[in-house]
Amino acid sequence: xxxxxxxxxxxxxxxxxxxxxxxxxxxxxxxxxxxxxxxxxxxxxxxxxxxxxxxxxxxxxxxxxxxxxxxxxxxxxxxxxxxxxxxxxxxxxxxxxxxxxxxxxxxxxxxxxxxxxxxxxxxxxxxxxxxxxxxxxxxxxxxxxxxxxxxxxxxxxxxxxxxxxxxxxxxxxxxxxxxxxxxxxxxxxxxxxxxxxxxxxxxxxxxxxxxxxxxxxxxxxxxxxxxxxxxxxxxxxxxxxxxxxxxxxxxxxxxxxxxxxxxxxxxxxxxxxxxxxxxxxxxxxxxxxxxxxxxxxxxxxxxxxxxxxxxxxxxxxxxxxxxxxxxxxxxxxxxxxxxxxxxxxxxxxxxxxxxxxxxxxxxxxxxxxxxxxxxxxxxxxxxxxxxxxxxxxxxxxxxxxxxxxxxxxxxxxxxxxxxxxxxxxxxxxxxxxxxxxxxxxxxxxxxxxxxxx
Length: 453
Description:
Keywords: Membrane, Transmembrane, Transmembrane helix. The protein is mostly helical. It has 20 helices and two strands.
């Protein structure tokens, strides 16, 4: 691709084609994933909110995903038919992810190369989607690029805040003009408010963002070490950090009582108190081994991605290498802590989503120079061809709607309750029950009556 100075129309063309492709991915390959019980939580919560029912009757997850997830749904709600919210959510989210990538890449290279990078990123995303679908991966790991309520939106927003803060702190010209303070007070307020919304909505994504900041800040070898840690020597930094944690924990404590949000830390400590250190180590090793077997049998597209990362890692940008190296053990520990000792889950692949994103970014960086050697029209034609191929995939919308609207039971398992409420657009509100037949108090708004007491 030899575009020297791509026009605004070139970018408009890319975002138009990529949005169509991403919508088709949501309606075909990823339809089952993004219309599962967990992912339908936010549209149903929003429906109760705007209809005047409120959300006081909801049992919310430890991460309620109010921001930016609920905000995105709220923006789309007046313009998108309710039953299409999950697909438009994924399309809308990916539009801004690609836009963020374009802006970030343009800081380090030309607009021409940033456009080539976008084409390559979208192409690889579709290819891995097709590979995962063809190999029968369960769940399809790249569905989290389009998902709501499973940390992806929070992670993208957290990464955006981190990179923006990092760029401001590295701006030498602006640093000289504000020698008496780290950042102007209006910017401090913006970041405090932004990270607070993230902390209250999704502490997993908040933690990922904070770790990203420390990694990119301290590991930047182009800056003298004294400068890299200068902000951490400031008393104001630590005072603000302590106030931030105290203030937001106080607000979250109020949320937990009024909105029935479970305490993850309490659940974790209660479970660990039953075990001795030897049992913890044994269970951890067994869990990680079983998890790796799940990847081998259910995530073969991840094995392909891992192989490509292994062989091309040294050609990744330094920042990308650093983030992958740091996040691999960190996310593995979070996976273990949450999946094995807090909310028992045999295969919570979503906690490794940041690794998928950074891996795909790195592989795109390695492959996109190939585009410079081919005809400028080829990437456009390839994406159009892929969109045409997706039209031949099954569109399960009508079949799914018919299935769930025909269910008449008043008490159903959790994985059926939300789809029934969603596809009936709230006309049916069955009560979710667990294996013991008792009401299942987990991420549901079905508890409107005394029947659940």
